[in-house]
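User: My collaborator sent over this chain with a note saying "see what the structure looks like." That's all I know about it. Can you take a look?
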Amino acid sequence: MTPKTLPEKMASLAVVDYEALANKDATEIQKLVQASQTTGMFYLDLRGPRTKAIFEDVQTIFKTGHDFFNLPQDSDEKTQTLREGMERGYHVGKGFEYYEIARDEFQLGKWVLPATFESEKERITRRVLRLGFSVHRVLNGIQFGPDLGW
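Assistant: Without extra context I'll predict from the sequence alone. Here is the result:
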């Protein structure tokens, strides 16, 4: 990976190559551990063959989210999924809104999506699972360092 000039407002952090981590590259694992122990932050480069699939459907998922959040505030689809006081469903904040899926419901396959998202449920599931796997691999790299038993 060749170094790139960072924009003026971008933090100067280590760039960790996920592909190298997945290939158990000791130098890259050490870079990850070092960044975690010093600044505590790093950029994770996910632009490799193993992670290509993560980005395949991003535009479709973003468009679906855009469609849902552009519905009128009082639309049936939003009000039916509004769950005040619960850690899941549609929520309205001061100047923002979001839809939260509970991890336990997701893992049990019992998560509920608004109609706008339902057609993308399989695509969303794939993204969540692939990103989750990638995060676990990085966390293992931090925890076990070069002695990693992937």
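A starting point for your reply to your collaborator: DSSP finds eight helices and four strands in the chain.
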